[in-house]
Known about the structure:
By secondary structure, the protein is an alpha+beta fold. 37% of the residues lie in helices and 19% in strands. The protein has a seven-stranded mixed beta sheet. A six-stranded mixed beta sheet has the order 3-2-1-4-9-8, sandwiched between helices. Helix 2 (107-114) crosses helix 4 (135-145), helix 12 packs across helix 13 (328-337) and helix 14 crosses helix 15 (422-432). The longest helix is centred in the C-terminal third of the chain and has 28 residues, at 374-401. The model has no long low-confidence stretch (mean pLDDT 96).
Amino acid sequence: MSHVLAIDAGTGxxxxxxxxxxxRFVAVAxxxxxxxxxxxxxxxxxxxxxxxxxxxxxxVREVLATSGIGGSAVQAVSASAMRxxxxxxxxxxxxxxxxxxxxxxxxxxxxxxxxxTGLLEEVYRRSGQTFALAAQPRLLWLAxxxxxxxxxxxxxxxxxxxxxxxxxxxxVMEPSNGSTSxxxxxxxxxxxxxxxxxxxxxxxxxPDVVEPGTAVGKLSDSAAExxxxxxxxxxxxxxxxxxxxxxxxxxxxxxQVLLTGGTFWQLNVNIGEPLTHPDLxxxxxxxxxxxxxxxxxxxxxxGTAVRWFRDTFAAPEVATARxxxxxxxxxxxxAAARVPVGADGVIPIFSDVMDYRHWRHAAxxxxxxxxxxxxxxxxxxxxxxxxxxAVVSAANLDLVSSFAPVAPDAPVVFAGGAAASPVWxxxxxxxxxxxxxxxxxxxxxxxxxxxCAATAAGALGTPADAAAWVTWERxxxxxxxxxxxxxxxxxxxxxxxxxxxxxxxxxxxxxMWHAPGS
Length: 518
């Protein structure tokens, strides 16, 4: 049986996933990785290319060993990655400098660019991106603080293409991940040199732009020796993790909605035209399908908050779970299910509705706690975190719907770790007032990446043909009465969150996160 390999360079780990060319998941291997701050550079999050490339090779060797699949059975390799992370190459293709996704060293540069009248609006209108996580301010920082490196720079690639480059591919950029650099035109999905030159940068740093599934090289002899794969197999362009997750779940038509619940919650709506939000509130990226874009609204850290609550406040529930050999989060979720809509009045101050232009969150906190304490209060606090993710997602969907067409009757596809919870899924359906469709696949990004590899191997005509691979676990129907109650919960939360955000803006409290220049 023939196979393809998907490599996903995520924020916290790198994974190598093996699939058959018919789309059946076989095995996965992963390695955690960390991104290093540069000494003396506040907000920096460097990307260690040599160390991380070694981890990529380790995952490939392991997935071949644990699956029992010989390297000669793998017909093609593709790669996906966290968005925004980038690598600067010299003329010989060697790495000069790299950073991970939420590197925020360029705060001064963002402020400088935003101070230029009309520049932010022009860049957003043309690219769908603000300067919050884009490449321009980071490259401007490089030009100012590491001019020797900037002068030697020949190409900028995203991390997904860097993975392939280290395996033998030519340096290229593709539209889904490349669009998050802010240097591709949203209308054409191709490089727009003015998006660099308007910011005081050279206009020749973006390499050739090619679509997902395109073969851009062959596995080198050295990479074959280091991995156990066969030399000469195609290396196929993948893309951004969220966009490839949509591809892997068959979300390839305008108006479709995908909500992915993990550490961050990403709401993606497919749009056929290069539309942007009038107030710059929503990011618009290239999709992993030619001619398609995705409006994206992100809820920050719902998964992080749930794990933080477990580790900080839920010692009794953790002990109970361990005694019974259970997952503590399941015990907490069961308790939360016994608390009514609205979490006994507890108001969570964690993730906020997307505001791409002024991307700042309030300090994490709970409001309106009862002094009665005990298991009931902990259950209410935990439920409020589940509701926060759902309410923010509903507000984000409304935000996107204000400027982009959304299919009114189609179910929202709900994927990611949170979708495995029936309780959380029901809360999401009730808050959105829309049916959810939960896929069986748990490796959506890897499956979309595998579709790109299968295309290069000749097993698919296009990556979008992998929609035939998707199977569904269940549908979740909203309760109309609970939906109306969640409207009230959302109104109370919005009223409470606004002054908390202002306290963080004034420096009275510390924001959970804020983008450079916000």
